[in-house]
Protein 1
Amino acid sequence: MLDNDQSTLKYCLYARKSSESDERQAMSIDSQLTEMRALAENEGLNVVCELQESHSAKDSGKRPVYNKLLKGLANDEYNAVLTWAPDRLSRNAGDLGAIVDLMDQGKLLHIRTYSQTFTNNPNEKFLLMILCSQAKLENDNKSINVKRGIRTKCEMGWRPGVAPLGYMNRAFGGVNDIIIDPERAPLIKEAFEKAGYERWSGRRIKAWLDEQGFKNRSGKPINLSQVLVILNTSFYYGKFQYPEAPDSPWYTGAHKPLISKELFDLVQETRGVNKGVWGSKVFAFRGLLKCGQCGADITAQDKIKELKNGETKRFVYYNCTRRKDPNCKEKYVSENRLCELMQGFIETNHEKITITDKLRAKVDKHYYVTKTLFTHYKIEQKLDDPFIEYARYVLADGTDNERIIFAGGIKTKLQIIDGKLGFYKQTLN
């Protein structure tokens, strides 16, 4: 019927090119549009609109223009799609399911690609699903191969990514190598010696490095936090962890160490019990919050209290830095109380909060696992929005690392005012 009655079909021309490097062989958007416009003219297809985007199709529901395409089909703005190939529409199960559902509902009557046509005919629809599933399989295999390649590189002793300051990445013969930076390495080695043997503080080491004219790769003096990162980086004595996460494996580097393991351990010990070990202070929500009274940053501090049973417990408090107003009256908020405030605030305002793609991936994964467990154990409980569910988990039971990633993934700046949480008003002076 569709082949004989094109007059009832209204096409949307959709073109997509991934912004990632996983589709280098795919045609450019301009090439897709040129070819499909020519096909539409030759075959007399009624194209009522054109949509295009540069976005990966590996994850479902993440393409704004593709979602607009689906919405237009659902609203009967058009009932057919013209695109270069099936994998332009879907490379994942979620988006494929959305397309098939629209075909089953009679909303999508025809898909025309450069070399094929697909209708709600069972055989054609099955072929469409096979081709899109094949594209997903290719994506999955690429991911596995990339991870295997990274793991092999680590096992060979070569740390992926940019080498730490004091080293340089060098490529020759198709092999990446990490060599010592002759200008920076001696100063970094001496910084470790001053921290370990002479008990220099991080601030004193920074001042000394500035005097020596030490610069980072951008040509600027390094800040204090970069000094502390250097002094806490095991790569300098020959070991590295990849990826940098608590449960990631350790590898022995093939690069030449700058210092000994003994000196590295000594540097970690020099901080002492009262000063804390390098990098041991974890303040998950510092950097996320502003003071609603004066507009200054919210910082954090911890207090170690001895309990009646002889054990010690760490308490974390967040407070205004008072850099803008030394007399700011905003009071301290404990981390436990702050977690309660954030949970309630997110439940009410989750739609207004912007988060990073990295955090969104964790939110979606947690939601999928939770939903699967509920189904498996036949738990009849309605789940809230995925972001709300993940926030409840992290703020109540999450690890320090999970809370750091959670807070770091929130793009929307928040404020504390009168002990309550709200959106930061940037009009404050």
Note: The longest strand covers residues 298-306.
Protein 2
Amino acid sequence: MIEIFDVICIGAALVDMVAQVVRHPADDDEVFVSDLTLLSGGAAANTAYACAKIGLSTAFIGKLGSHDTFGDKILNDFKEVNVATKLIKYSEHHGTGSAYIALNEKGDRRIYAHSGAANYLSKEDLIEKELVNTKIIFLSSLKNLEPFIEASIIGRNNKIPVILNPGMLIIDQGLKNIKKLLEKIDILILSQNEYATLFDIEECYLNEDLIQEKSSTLFKLGIRAIITTLGKKGAFLLTNRNAELLPPLNLSSLIDTTGAGDAFSAGFIYGFVRNINLKFEHLKNNVKIGNFVAGNCIQELGARNGIPSREDLNFFLNASNKKI
């Protein structure tokens, strides 16, 4: 019997080395690391983990080093929440990637990512008979665009919605160079920094009116919905006809913003997969779930420790008078 997944997440799986510091160093400076933690990471992998933890049938496609220590950790962490790993590809020539993250007392972070094997995922690794067995395709944060374009083509040919949360590795390539990918997706999820960079806007000047103005370019490419996460302001949902800013979760504490966008994507997918519908009111509910999952995430260290359980999510949905 063929397994049909709620979502297949495609992109990078890395291991994060998180250094906790009092402050970030200046030029030619040194700071003391009070704690160093090893965590599985990578944007698409984080979203896959979160999707599985909140109750979705989830598979991951990415490339790891063949039988190396970091790759083994990633696989073991996936298995804890039942992310399907049978579609993962392996490289004999490149090791599993890693990211080095410095996190200060305010929760601000600096990330240095070495993609390793992840960036060698090829379009030949994206096999149609594997990808058609899902309700949603999710793409995130891989510098190499070819496999994402291939996955998007497969999705479109088989009427499977494609969601892209690009990350700076894609955004830094410029609108002109990523246009071919954007033309083939349905929903675009961007951080405030990603949106500002994409349109060469100073982040401090970015607001909802400017997002609406600039997004006409994206809608002309065929994108159906755009969500821009705006940190403390919440998430701005935009379609061709409607727009609304949806507030974030009220927080008791903020520990670490690492993975907030990945968690938001998982919450959004949770809502979307249960009602695959691009009507604005349905999309609003999905964004609210995204805000809830992201809000929980940033109250713990790392991209995964704060992801709520399915029971916690159901409690939130019931309290909000929403259907599961």
Note: The radius of gyration is 18 Å.
